[in-house]
Every structure is written in structure tokens, then in C-alpha cells.
Amino acid sequence: MRHAIRIMLWAILMATLAVPSVWSQEAAIAAASADGPMAPRLEWFEDPKGLLTIHEVASAALRHRFQPHEGSVLALLPSRSYFWLKVHPAPTERGRPAGPTAWWLELANPNLDEADLFLEGGLPGTYQVKTAGALRGSWEQDLRYRTILFQIPSGYSPERPIFLRIRNHALLNVPIRLWRPEAFERFAFLDLFFFGLLFGVLASMILANFFIFLTLWDRTYLWYVLYMASMLVYLACLFGPFRMAADFGPGRVLMILWVALGMAFWFAFLFCREFLDTQNNAPGLGRLLAVVMAFGPVILVL
After folding, report:
1. Which among 247, 17, 19 is positioned nearest to 137, based on CA atoms?
2. Comparing 50-54, 130-134, 154-158, which segment has the lowest mean pLDDT?
3. Least confident of 5-9, 61-65, 128-132, 191-195
4. pLDDT at residue number 76
5. I need a surface site. Which of 43, 199, 246, 299 has the fewest CB within 10 A?
6. Model-level pTM?
7. What are phi and psi for residue 82, nearest 5 degrees?
8. Rounded alpha-carbon distances, angstroms, from residue 301 to 74, 111, 235, 261
9. Which residues contact 287 (CB under 8 A, 6 or more apart)?
10. Highest mean pLDDT: which range of 36-40, 128-132, 278-282
11. pLDDT, tens digit, for every residue of 108-123?
12. Which residues are CB-neighbours of 289 under 8 A, at least 6 positions away?
């Protein structure tokens, strides 16, 4: 049991350290950017009421409201406002825009509430609109993947800006990257391989300890299995692989995420109480754990 716990903690630690580093990476702008993402130049402004249209945002009258942003990761405090982003495709190392080709625009936060993409159309004043986001339905986007992806057509000039409108009820942390198709395919292969390995280890630990529980009928193993299962679902929702399984509808994945987190909180403390036998060995600690366990249902309610 102790060896299994050490493996579980090591797997979760690797997930929390490795995945955010993948999310926050900012590749250098290179001429032959086929080996990695290109970091676009960003400008943004806040729309508190969410009433502005794309025609108003793109007009010269509101051009002064855009603020330049350093880097390709937009990090803002929680807000109910909408945020408009103007994405300028990164120039090449020689200072010339990249040639016409298909691109993937990635918003590497799978749990954004709403994300709208606006591309200038063939006629002046016309825009092609694409929508995505956890509250908009899981797969209103161009490719089924764990993050939000929009395809930029090959005929779209890199000299024209790309407009985004995003909103999120929680902390707004959005790495924004532009990928060539061949570079993204290589990245996606390694990315999904990592998550497959991580969730495969967690699933094997769940099954192994479940069979031990069926053999010994020890409740310690039951609470441990339920905790690990809740954490697996929570991590799959948090990092996006859960969305690749099926279309769960608007807001369902966020609801599952918080339910899984509350259940993981609850079963973790049940496991600690049973494993440490606090009723006999540390009654004070047992009462403290009972008080802390009350936060599990609070998370479910919120």
C-alpha cells in the first residue's frame, strides 16, 4: 500500500510540474517555425458589459483601447467581463510575415467558458465567426483535441489581425500559440502520449487496489480506490482529455470537474482516517479530519 501511495504521489507531482510547463512555454520566433509554435504578438482590452460587436472593436474609433501584451500567455484576475484580443501572427526572423499556409491557433486552456474567433472575410466589413468553450458545447471547433483549436485558412494573410473574444469565470490564464500543421502533429503525439501514460498508470493502480479490496474487504483500500478514481476524472477534466471521449454538452464537463474534486477531497480524508486508525491512535487528529472533510460537500455545492 505504501509503495502504491508513493507511485501515486509521484505521478501527480509529474503531472503538476510537466503539464503547466508545456502550457506556458513560449517558443522563440524562428523563420522555419515548423519545429515548434510561433508566439504571436497580442493586444487586448476589457469589455465589462460584453455588448461590443466585432465591427465596433475592429473600427479605428476603438483602436486606442487595445493594450500591448508581452509574451503569448494572457494571465488576468477572475472577472465577469469579456476580453477582446487582437492576435498578430509572428513575423519571421528576417522580419517578413510567414508565407500563406494553413495554421492552427491554439488556446491552451481547455476550460475557458467562451471563446469566439473572428477572421476577416473576403468582402470589407465581413467576418467569419467560430465559437468554442466549455459553456458553448464541447466540440464547436475545428479539431477534436484536449485544448481549443481554431484553423486559420491557408489563404488568410498573416498581415491581417485575428480577433478573439474570451470570457472565463475563474482565473484567466490562456497560452496562445500558432502552429504549422506538421509541427502540431508532432507536438500532439507527444502530448497525448504523456497523458495516456499518466492516466494508464493511475488506472492500473485503481484496478490493482480494487482487486486487493475484493480479496481483503478492507475499507482502507476502498477509500483509496475511490480517491484515485475521483482524481483521475478530475485531472482528465482539468487538462482536457475527458472532452475527447464524447460531447457532454454545455457546462457538463465543468460540473463533472468540480464534483470529482469534491469527491476526491472527501475520500482522501476518509482514507487518511482509516489508514492511520485515528479513532484509536490519534482521536484529536480524527476530529480535525472530520471537520476538514466538511469542505468536500461545500465544494460540491459551490
Report:
1. 247
2. 154-158
3. 5-9
4. 79
5. 246
6. 0.77
7. -90, 150
8. 30, 19, 20, 12
9. none
10. 128-132
11. 888 899 999 999 887 7
12. 269, 272, 273, 278
Q: Return d(Cα 171, Cα 216) in angstroms, integer.
A: 44
Residue 124: CA count within 13 A, CB half-sphere: 1
3-state secondary structure the chain: CHHHHHHHHHHHHHHHHHHHHHHCCCCCCCCCHHHCCECCEEEEEEECCCCCCHHHHCCHHHHHHCEEECCCEEEECCCCCEEEEEEECCECCCCCECCCCCEEEEECCCCCCEEEEEEECCCCCCEEEEEECCCCCCCCCCCCCCCEEEEECCCCCCCCCEEEEEECCCCEEEEEEEECHHHHHHHHHHHHHHHHHHHHHHHHHHHHHHHHHHHHCCHHHHHHHHHHHHHHHHHHHHHCHHHHCCCCCCCHHHHHHHHHHHHHHHHHHHHHHHHHCHHHHCHHHHHHHHHHHCHHHHHHHC
pLDDT digits (tens, 9 = 90+) for 74-89: 887 778 899 999 988 7
Phi and psi at residue 138, to the nearest 5°: -70, -35
140 HSE (CA, 13 A, CB side): 17
Confidence band, pLDDT 50/70/90 cuts, at residue 99: low
